[in-house]
Amino acid sequence: MRRRDFAIGLLLAPATQSAWAQHPTKQQRIAIIVTLPVAQIDDPTIPVYRVFFEELHRLGDVEGPNLTIERYSSGVRPASYPDLAREVVARNPDVIVAFGDPMTQALRTATGTIPIVYIGSDPIQEGFAASLARPGGNITGVTSDTGKEILGKRLQMLKEAVPSASKVAFLEMRTDSAANEQQLREAGRRLEISVIDKPLQESTPSEYQRVFSEIEQERPDAIIVSTDGAFIPYRQLIVELAEKSRLPAMYGSRYYPEVGGLMAYASDLGELGRRMADDVHEILKGAKPGDIPIYQPTKFDLVINLKAARALGLTIPPALLATADEVIE
Q: Among 113, 211, 235, 319, which one has the highest count of C-beta atoms within 10 angstroms of its own C-beta?
């Protein structure tokens, strides 16, 4: 399940090569660990990765001339994370970029010195930071949500779009299920909605098809899809499966309504990727991760796809439409 792809030098114009030869620059190394297959780290259709690399390049951290990037896939088998964490730490990169709380926990156990830039949920609850403003340890980065409230907000908006909903399925990775399920169930009790947790073992087409087959048997009234970045490459498939199951869906990224999903309430994943690149750049220049504030998104956009609503026979309430930041006709 684990693969590595070591960076190769970029082609430079002769004049640039000459300049580098005259003024050699220290080659620095970063390790990136994702749950997706390694090849998808360079997929330009995945905003968080694309913007991350674009921002690094803009800041002068260019793969090849002065930066080596080691790419790793952790998969979604937490039992393997400690071994991978030790392997990455043993190579002693200048910075480790980690996606997800479970992998970051394994890295935190493996090293207290190598800087880690991560994206995950609640860094204080997970024990990664003393505070958002001053993390204090070797971990900084970005949060994809703003705590418990965001899941409840998504469920509330879904209830507004589908007032008759009394049972909602929640699609997420198994590694994230415990905390998310509890938060949604608490919100569900307030809204008189039963929440059915449907975790995936891995992010693969066959696993999505298997879980949606189970969901159909449960006969929920709607579905919420997690913000997990491992879902993004398969967003078209997830939207099609939800549509086939006739399930109104609330997604954790605007990239789902853009390919036909019903609605999303989410922060900008591209912005999170940019912030992560900024953190990496500062650390490569000598900053301590414990002094770099963890970025928490403050603006969330509601995106509604009216074509998808019509296909489901839904009439979105005018009050909800009025709060939308973008309406796709």
A: 235
Segment 58-81, tens digit of pLDDT: 999 999 999 999 999 987 777 899
258-262-267 Cα angle (round to 5): 60
pTM: 0.77
| Joined tokens for residue 306 | 């009216």
Q: What is the pLDDT of residues 84-105, one digit of tens each?
A: 999 999 999 999 999 988 899 9
Q: How many other C-beta atoms can be found within 10 angstroms of the C-beta atom of residue 1?
A: 12
How many alpha carbons lie under 13 Å from residue 27 in its C-beta half-sphere?
10
Residue 57 to residues 12, 67, 188, Cα–Cα distance (Å): 14, 10, 44
256 close to 228: Cβ distance less than 8 angstroms: no
As a whole number of angstroms, the distance between CA 9 and CA 27 comes to: 11
Distance CA 89, CA 261 (A): 40
**H or E, element range at 29:** strand 28-34
Q: Match 């002769």 to its residue by tokens.
A: 14
| Distance in angstroms (rounded) separating the CA atoms of residues 5 and 294 | 28
Q: What's the domain range around 187?
A: 148-266+300-328
Tell me the one-letter amino acid at 329.
E
Q: How far apart are CA 139 and CA 105, in angstroms?
A: 10
Q: Which of 52-61, 145-154, 199-208 has the lowest mean pLDDT?
A: 145-154
CATH number for the domain harbouring residue 30: 3.40.50.2300
Is residue 114 pLDDT above 90, yes or no?
Answer: yes
Residue 148 is given by DSSP the state: H
59 shares a domain with 47? yes
- In a shared domain, residues 213 and 110: no
**Angle between the N-to-C axes of helices 177-191 and 148-161, in degrees from 0 to 180, rounded to the nearest 10:** 50
